[in-house]
């Protein structure tokens, strides 16, 4: 995924499913470097992880 698509997903009112290593995640923010994003797994867990946006996949 590229930075522009991450921004589109963040600003969209739609529920767009994004996968990271096969797990469905919410994107919390695109980080300042434009190459990483802070995400958390959908569900009751709120642990946030910084990942390379190239590893995110739109389902």
Describe the structure in your own words.
The protein is an alpha+beta fold. The chain has one domain (3-58): Roll (SH3 type barrels). The chain has 1 helix and 5 strands. It has a 5-stranded antiparallel β-sheet. β2 and β3 form a beta hairpin.
Topology:
Elements: H1 3-11, E1 18-20, E2 23-30, E3 36-41, E4 48-52, E5 56-58
Antiparallel strand pairs: 1-2, 1-5, 2-3, 3-4
Provide a short characterization of the protein structure:
Its main location: other. The protein is 15% helix and 42% strand. With 59 residues, the protein is an alpha+beta fold.
Strand order of the largest sheet: 4-3-2-1-5
- What is the β-strand count? 5
Rounded radius of gyration (Å): 10 Å
End-to-end distance, in Å?
Answer: 11 Å
CATH hierarchy class name:
Mainly Beta
Question: Share of helix among residues?
Answer: 10-25%
- The oligomeric status of these chains comes to single chain
Uncertain spans: none
CATH architecture: Roll
Number of helices: 1
Structural class label: alpha+beta
What are the secondary-structure elements, in order, as H or E? HEEEEE
Mean pLDDT: 96
Task: Could you tell me the CATH topology label.
Answer: SH3 type barrels
Strand content: 35-45%
Shape: globular
Note the main sheet: 5 strands, antiparallel
Task: Tell me the domain tally.
Answer: 1
InterPro entries: SASP_SspH
Keywords: Sporulation
Family: Belongs to the SspH family.
Subcellular location: Spore core
